[in-house]
Amino acid sequence: MDLDPLILQLLESHPIADQTDLLDRLSAEGHELTQSTLSRRLKRLGVQKVQGRYRRVEGTAQILPDVSIAEVPPNLLVLRTAPGFAQALGLSVDADPVPGQMGTLAGDDTVFVAVLPERLADVKAHLLRAVAGR
Questions:
Q1: What is the CATH number of domain 3-56?
Q2: 5: exposed, middle or buried (C-beta count within 10 Å: 0-12, 13-18, 19+)?
Q3: What confidence tens digit (pLDDT) does each residue in 45-86 have?
Q4: What is the pTM (predicted TM-score) of this model?
């Protein structure tokens, strides 16, 4: 089972009060995560602790600009967005790094992501999923 739906399912079906409990339940399902990785996933999923229990909280609707991603081999991804949004996009990319992602540089409407050459396709696929899931 994909990890994000599993996390949401566990939160709906069990009164989970701390991340250690959730990590244990994920481990029992065959998913080993660090606490920091789980914390980033919870944030991305909109999960917060409400009345002593982790729950998905619907945020206010935000209209975010489109993002395009281009490869510049051997080790660079270029993300283009609307003017004024690159800094926030760069922070978002930095907040959820994947193996091989070395760093970002953001301007006004462009973010450069430095990647290990052998991980270029993996990092691009991760960023495409992240952009699609906003």
A1: 1.10.10.10
A2: exposed
A3: 888 888 889 988 876 455 678 999 999 999 999 999 999 899
A4: 0.55
